Fold each of these.
Amino acid sequence: MRLPLEDKKFELYSIREEKTDGAFGAYPAERKIEQKIDFGFVLLDKPSGIRSKTAAATAKKILAPLGAKKIGYSGTLEA
Amino acid sequence: MPLAINSATKALAELLVGGKEYIALMHVHKDFELDDLNKTLKQFTGVISQLPPVRSNVKRQYRDREIYYLDVLEIEGNDVLFKVGVQSGTYIRKLISDIGEKLGTGAHMIELRRTKVSTLSEKSGLVTLQDLDDAVYFYQNEKDDRLLKKCIQNIEDALDFMPKVIVSDEAVDTVAHGSPVAVPGITGFNHFDKGDRIFISTLKGELIAIGNAVMSSDELLSAKGGIAVKNDTVIMKTGLYPAYHRQNQT
């Protein structure tokens, strides 16, 4: 079964054809780790029994040497 | 559980507006007929009215929430395992107790697992803390980034349900500084309505910022100038693209 968002399809209207300079930024699929860290997210398989907050803090510690200064999580279960 | 790193954390709020899917285990307090259960569950799909629980972060008044689907996966005695796709802000514990009341038996929730947020599902690459630790080890000690590249996904992929406005290289840095998106800087866009949340993108598909559309895409098509999107959440660091001085400014 699918949520309504999953079937959303977008058509692209092009106003003008324009080239992008490869010297700046990077295509998301070609990002190096240093670039990826600022645009990154991780889908964590949280161990049951530990709090989301604890899991996020552990992940932050693991990723800190790569330059992760901030980790945010979306953990509201709305139970 | 989606974890976002550094400035990508600012985009997390966008994920919350999308729907969610859960697998829940419901315990029914008395014996029931399968027919009655199916009939009752049917009444809990589509738009339902729900009173948020006493302990919640929202005002306690009935509000409409849409249940997109509700499928029973397994029944064992009085325990019913089901999968449910819901609009954001639906309380599952409350849903189950309402189902129990309607069924005439009473019921409560034993277990809950969230399986989708917006377009992110468990299938889109779940990693454990151990995976992540291993990946960082390989990257740092063996200069092998393959595992880590798999663990860390691009925030753009999590926001693929948002309409985009694409701007030229020249406009990127001003948007990264927080400036609104002006019509002349736009090279392409998806369909959107006035007020929609917009993914402001580079030509390479990088997320620069997120903001509200101040005109609809139809209006944009015929607009010669003016502001199209007011950006309120900048993701990209400044300086990634060159700064062009606005020479036309008087």
Amino acid sequence: MDLIISAYCQIHGNKVIVNDRLIYYQENFLTFADFIKSVYKQEQINYPKFYKMDSISKLGFLAADLILKQNTISGYRNDSVGVVLANSSSSLDTDIAHYDTIKDRLKYFPSPSVFVYTLPNIVVGEICIKNKIKGENVFLISETFDSTLLYNYTRQLFENCGMEACLCGWVEVLGSKYRTLITLIEKSGLPMSDEISKFRPLPFNQINLDLIFEHN
Amino acid sequence: MRPVYITADNIITSLGFNTSENVRSIQNNVIGLKQIEDPSLYPSPITLSRVNTPELELRFSEVLQKHQKNTAPVSYTRLEKILLVSISDVLSASNINLWNKRTLFVLSTTKGNIDLLEERYKAQFNHRRIFLWELARVIGAFFGFTLPPVVISNACISGILALITASRFIQSGLVDHAVVAGGDIASEFVITGFQSFQAISPAPCKPFDLHRTGLSLGEGAGAMILSAFPKPSVIDQITIAGAATTNDANHISGPSRTGEELGIAIKKAMAAANLTPADIQYISAHGTATSYNDEMESKAIAWCDLTKVPVNSFKGYWGHTLGAAGLIESVAAIESLKTNQLFVSAGYHECGVPVPINVITKCETKPLKHALKMASGFGGCNAAIIYQKS
């Protein structure tokens, strides 16, 4: 089965790149929270729940949204679209926030709105809610970006589990460090666009995943 | 696609350190959930299922000896010790080669060594140990796995998802065997979080019961060996017949109102196994005993025409063990298949879900061939897996 990377979004180093095009760059030093909010505002995404999300969810949610704004998945049955995401530090960024609410017994205020984000797969849930995706989903943990694992996992979802499209990628935030690459994987043979400016799909394999991840 | 056999298993909870100790306790209706006073976990007493610490230390020192490790037991965290004892048990029941590149180690956990955030452990362990990949590396290196481990952290479906992942990697020929382990400890971190949700029951949890008052937490671990080849000299082989995951796409902390998405996972698992509802003789539910979860599961069961099928939840015995739950409850369900016995759903007396389902209230012997195990979790995730005896 031939699979293609039909679109991607990468966010890191104050840059947002969608399908090889730099769509946003912030020259000034901003905290992650301010940077991601500025992207959200520029892209005019009207989704108030965004403000309640933790950092990983904001990052993954935005990357997925920027891809799906241009590449519709509405032609697929919602239970045949999957999400395969991974990162290195799980939800440690938010774990520390929850731990800060309990470490001092005199200032004890654990909060369900923080605690619910102390699982890495919540970002998958946020992406699924916004885009009505109901297919296979998984969150994997590896020390560094593992294109082989992402490739193997995603490929077998197409071959053995009836998936027709998948969001596949990496969503990592810890403190001030953040990096995401989300790709849209589809079967090849989709009608190609005539527009010269349009992104040319790449074969879905480890090499191309690594190339996109490292290049931008 | 080639079949995937289950050739060894282990459960560690408050009820024991291997599958038979746990199953014997369940047969005798022993409840592992107790009122525990431990200010390092929670300021007031709390109902919890905890692995017996002195017994754990004893079993762990045996594991160190057996694997000829000269390191001090203090160099391992509580979760690592539980996982190492669990994996050592399944490996002793098997002769698979871990050193070639055909055996994969898959680890399922929600919070890993999260207790290492606490000040008291800062001097003892390197800060890297809190990363889940480092936890998996330490455990993999102990036994000498050569392939890099695969780590799944997907809320309460982690255990089933680890089994699904391993079985798919075997089916697609990437590996021949997988050692799948899952575990989570009872930590201040998790207890305070669930308390803030007001989700924890003051008394041992009562899945599906009219008077249920929330979930009980438990700690534990489990392990299974999955293989492309059957276990020699065993008549009743257990295989994974089909599995699927879905997402509710509805809410991050509340389950679907209709149960339809868990239902889709069940139907996909049945389709993959080439089975109809009439082929399923037993369901091991997630059954957390929260109001919404149990309600949703009953609707999913009805949506799949499975309301007559006997169903239980093991959480009334050992609580919700998070990253271990799907794994150890699968082991217990497989024990039902092997012995043709249905185990009582602890804590259940009167139906408390909108769609009546057939909750098991007395231990019963009947021929069993297919068992359905399911789970759902935060982030809207659902998983279903079907075990087959042949």
